[in-house]
Write a structure and sequence with these properties.
- The complex is a heterodimer.
- Helix content of chain A is 78%, strand content 0%.
- By secondary structure, chain A is an all-alpha fold.
- The longest helix of chain A has 35 residues, at 87-121.
- Chain B has 26 helices and 12 strands.
- An 8-stranded mixed beta sheet of chain B has the order 6-7-8-3-9-10-12-11, with helices on both faces. A 4-stranded antiparallel beta sheet of chain B has the order 2-1-4-5.
- In chain B, helix 2 packs across helix 12 (249-279).
- The chains are: A mainly alpha, B alpha/beta.
């Protein structure tokens, strides 16, 4: 467990370097005038000139990257082009929003997915068909659309939940929870189906293993076999699956933040992407990478706790 | 390659799982790329008078906020969508398939380097790269699609790699490589055709995934800029007008979902069709099996066996009387064991011996009420402690298991839950049978470890199954089984997975425990040495039936049934060094394919005509046991057997 965790932290460094370098070196591929391309066709010549100056587009790209890297090590990710605010400051206030969204979604998907998966283990043909259909639905229905339908039902039709905006936990815990219900549900939909499918398959697999037969043969109760022994095995797999889905989840989180007007990292990146605010996107790249590494680390610790064999491995 | 192309296409077209999604996708493609001819309205034509109307004859899918025709806009947006998907997935395939083939077939350093790179790329948060590229390249969807295509390379490469790894190990591919065909030609000729189905499925998944990402980007206003029509952009329009009407959301989001689903279902269907090409359909075997089943069912009408000797054990703890177990299969009801009688008396040991697939384990499971799903005791009675357990429900069985009848299995390492410590496993077993505190349970666990002669119990209790040897694990399994102080232990090949010295120790341990506790033991084994050392009585099973039984010494020194003789002769430990170990030619017929007469007749050197005519019953020639052979108890036959042995 400590070894895997250590590996994750060690690997995070080159990953961060690689991702941030990509954000710079991609600029090499811009055809023609980079400043015009970033500023957009509608930008005035003055704005383009300002942009060129701000992004040091007249310097070679490796010099720019080196300068950025030196500052980044000290926690300075540069300033936004649109409002000249420090990128790290802006993103720090937004980090909590995205973390709340992603962590709540993962937890909800784990609980609901495992419960649904377990409920469908014993089912017959109909259950199997329903489970298969649900898993295809999870792969094909856009999160944006799930959110849209959620808004229509729980906000437009029955005014139960807010459809827009975010309440900080410090302001009102209840408001915070209410503002997250719909976004989390929309984001969790796909992950729930993935986890339910894995749970179902893993349970069937574990229940057919020798040790389960031996437990049964020596009188251990079905409840203990299901909830103590099998569930532990299934949890290990399911947590791994949740980890593998984190990157995809962040992608959908960006869309969901936009739809529900959540002031998270994703919506900052989207605004920056449409206005050509490169320093902000580069900052979000660093934050996203750290989120992926950090959450995977937590999942690793959970897996290690459930399956101490990983210590020996 | 051997099958002509036409039947495959015809077979594919005959399946709704392929035709329905294929028709949907073809219609969508025609409508999208033919939009300028087929669409009822130009994409930007506004008609404010009928803004946000539902479906009508004039606007089949209604209109948006500006009164633009939804159907027309979906059609115009479709062309871009499909073009985008094609760019991304083609890039993925063109790069990932060759790399995966090289990695899988060449292995070595190339493989290691590629897999390492794949790991790195897979840990990049892809969305951020997309946003950067869109910002840098003036919102170009093409640039975004190239990024999606590249980001999907590692996943596809892994799939191709592991598939070609498997195919590359197959004999004919290996032979082609040894004969000097280069990696590329092997890949193209032998490997690629085999993994096409798999690639198709994953390409379909990649298409669906790209579609969702593209729609998502457009829905948040990136890539395609309004007023240009895009599926995602139209979902965003729907979000803006949700207060006034839900309708707009239905065709837009619905179309994305239906298209993605069609792609995935089509990919699955094509893979299944292609897979059949390599495995062939199973119709031929089905019919053959069916005829065999009919003969088995006929065999059920067997003459009454004389099983008095088998049931004559003193103080029987368990007793099976003429038990037949059947399983529900797709070919009907098939017998797994047939007409099995046995009894094990208190403190006694009965051995069940025979080749694999003879029904020894099934007999043990019937005794434990743990028959696999679909199998049941069709006739005969199972008695435990003098009570017929035929009508027992799960709760009654659970009360018996562990307490009255316990079980240890063949593979001690997979027989213990690897995620728990031995202490946790033992304490759970102890507390299943007795109400004890944690402390008392630990004491009892230590006592059990002493009983199975494991030194240093405090250390062992803290270890996990993966940290102990096979012999130790089997001792722990025995300790778990002993936790409920059972009256009989069913030991299913308890020594098979262990090396010889450990085998003897385990058998001796079981004997010691029996002496101390008076526990009965049903020892299932194919090893005559174990049977000789442990068992008072030996039952020989063949193809679901008891073919011979008697006191162990008599069975091993003066066997009655030809199968017993052959089985004894095939004991590898009796073989003379330098000479081949005698084996029994042929194999045990599987359930459902048993002959009408003697099950062993096909492999029997002494077969006469009577053997195959009718079912054979157990007979008891003297007080030294029973046998299921027409030649036993028949003077002429006995002579025949004498001569042959």
């Amino acid at each position: 467990m400590w070894r895997t965790s250590g590996m994750r932290i060690v690997q995070a460094v080159p990953l961060l370097l690689f991702v941030s370098a990509l954000t710079f070196f991609l600029q090499l591929f811009i055809p023609g005038d980079a400043a015009r391309s970033i500023g957009g066709l509608t930008a005035s010549p003055q704005a383009i000139a300002a942009l060129r100056h701000r992004l040091h587009l007249d310097q070679p790209v490796w010099e720019r990257y080196w300068a950025w890297l030196k500052d980044a090590v000290h926690g300075d990710l540069g300033r936004s082009i649109s409002n000249n605010e420090a990128v790290s400051g802006t993103l720090n206030t937004r980090l909590g929003v995205t973390l709340s969204l992603v962590i709540a979604t993962t937890l909800l998907a784990l609980v609901v997915g495992v419960v649904l998966g377990m409920a469908s283990v014993r089912g017959g043909r109909t259950t199997r068909l329903a489970a298969d259909s649900a898993s295809i639905a999870g792969m094909t229905i856009p999160a944006f659309w799930v959110g849209l339908l959620g808004i229509w039902v729980f906000n437009t039709r029955f005014d139960l939940l807010p459809a827009n905006g975010y309440v900080f936990f410090g302001t009102s815990a209840g408001g915070w929870a209410r503002s997250l219900v719909l976004p989390v549900a929309a984001l969790a939909f796909a992950l729930v189906t993935v986890i339910a499918k894995q749970t179902r398959e893993q349970f069937a697999d574990v229940l057919s293993r020798d040790f389960v037969r031996n437990l049964r043969a020596n009188g251990v109760s079905e409840r203990s076999i299901l909830f103590k022994h099998s569930l532990r095995h299934v949890s290990v797999t399911v947590l791994t699956v949740a980890g593998n889905n984190l990157i995809g989840l962040l992608g959908s989180a960006v869309v969901i933040e936009e739809l529900f007007g959540l002031p998270g990292l994703g919506s900052a990146a989207v605004t920056a992407a449409s206005s050509g605010d490169i320093p902000v996107i580069q900052g979000v790249a660093v934050y996203f990478t750290l989120i992926v590494v950090g959450l995977n680390l937590l999942l690793d610790l959970a897996i290690g706790w459930l399956n101490p064999q990983a210590v020996a491995a | 390659m051997s099958t002509p192309q036409v039947p495959i296409i015809r077979r594919a077209l005959g399946r709704p799982r392929i035709t329905i999604p294929a028709v949907i996708l073809v219609l969508e493609l025609i409508a999208s790329f033919g939009a300028s001819w087929l669409a009822p309205y130009p994409p930007q034509q506004a008609d404010f008078a009928s803004a946000l109307s539902g479906p009508s004859a004039k606007h089949l899918l209604g209109t948006d906020r500006l009164g633009r025709d939804v159907l027309s806009r979906l059609m115009y947006g479709g062309a871009d969508t499909f073009r985008e998907i094609a760019i991304a997935v083609l890039i993925t395939l063109v790069i990932a398939v060759p790399l995966g083939l090289v990695a899988g077939l060449r292995r070595g350093r190339i493989d290691a380097a590629l897999m390492r790179m794949a790991d790195v790329v897979m840990s990049i948060p892809g969305i951020i790269l997309l946003l950067i590229v869109l910002a840098l390249f003036s919102q170009s969807m093409t640039a975004a699609m190239i990024v999606i295509g590249l980001l999907s390379v590692p996943g596809m490469m892994r799939v191709v790699r592991s598939a070609s790894l498997t195919v590359g190990r197959e004999t004919y591919v290996a032979a082609a490589r040894v004969s000097g065909l280069g990696t590329w030609r092997v890949a193209r000729r032998h490997v690629l055709p085999r993994i096409t189905g798999l690639i198709l499925v994953n390409a379909a998944l990649a298409c669906a995934n790209t579609l969702l990402i593209a729609a998502g980007l457009n829905a948040i206003g990136l890539g395609v800029k309004p007023p240009a029509p895009s599926w995602g952009g139209m979902m965003a329009d729907a979000a803006q007008t949700l207060n006034q009407s839900l309708w707009l959301a239905i065709p837009t989001g619905g179309l994305v979902a239906v298209t993605a689903a069609a792609l995935i279902v089509l990919g699955d269907g094509l893979r299944d069709t292609l897979a059949e090409r390599w495995s062939g359909t199973s119709h031929a075997t089905t019919t053959r099996r069916r005829t065999a089943v009919t003969t088995t069912v006929a065999a059920a009408a067997a003459p009454e066996s004389d099983d008095a000797w088998l049931l004559a054990e003193p103080h029987p703890v368990v007793r099976l009387t003429k038990v037949t177990v059947t399983a529900e299969t797709e070919h009907g009801e098939v017998e797994l064991i047939s007409d099995v009688s046995l009894a094990v008396g208190q403190g006694r040991t009965v051995g069940l011996v025979g080749e694999s697939g003879c029904g020894k384990s099934m007999t043990g499971l019937a005794l434990l009420g743990l028959l696999p799903n679909g199998a049941r005791v069709a006739s005969g009675t199972v008695e435990i402690d003098g009570t017929d357990v035929g009508s027992y429900g799960p709760a009654q069985w659970r009360a018996l298991r562990g307490g009255t009848i316990a079980f240890i299995s063949q593979e001690p390492m997979v027989g213990l839950d690897p995620l728990f410590t031995i202490g946790q496993l033992l304490r759970e077993a102890v507390r299943t049978h007795e109400k004890l505190s944690r402390k008392e349970a630990t004491l009892r666990a230590r006592e059990l470890l002493a009983q199975v002669q494991l030194p240093d119990p405090d250390r062992v209790l803290k270890l996990r199954p993966s940290q102990i040897s096979g012999g130790m694990a089997q001792r722990v399994s025995i300790a778990v089984a002993l936790a409920g102080r059972p009256r009989i232990l069913v030991a299913d090949e308890p020594t098979t997975a262990l090396d010889v010295t450990v085998q003897r120790e385990i058998v001796q341990l079981l004997r010691t425990i029996q002496r101390d506790t008076g526990m009965a033991l049903l020892m299932i084994s194919h090893d005559w040495d174990v049977i000789a050392e442990a068992c008072d009585t030996a039952l020989v099973m063949y193809a679901g039936q008891v073919v011979e039984a008697g006191p162990t010494e008599r069975v091993m020194t003066a066997p009655l049934h030809p199968y017993t003789r052959k089985l004894l002769a095939a004991n590898p430990r009796l073989a003379t060094v330098g000479e081949p170990i005698p084996t029994i030619p042929g194999t045990v017929p599987p359930p459902g394919q048993w002959p009408v007469g003697c099950h062993f007749a096909d492999r029997c050197p002494d077969r006469v005509t009577r053997c195959t005519e009718a079912p054979i019953a157990l007979t008891q020639p003297d007080d030294q046991g029973v046998a299921r052979c027409v030649l036993v108890g028949d003077e002429l036959g006995e002579e025949l057997l004498e001569v042959s042995s």
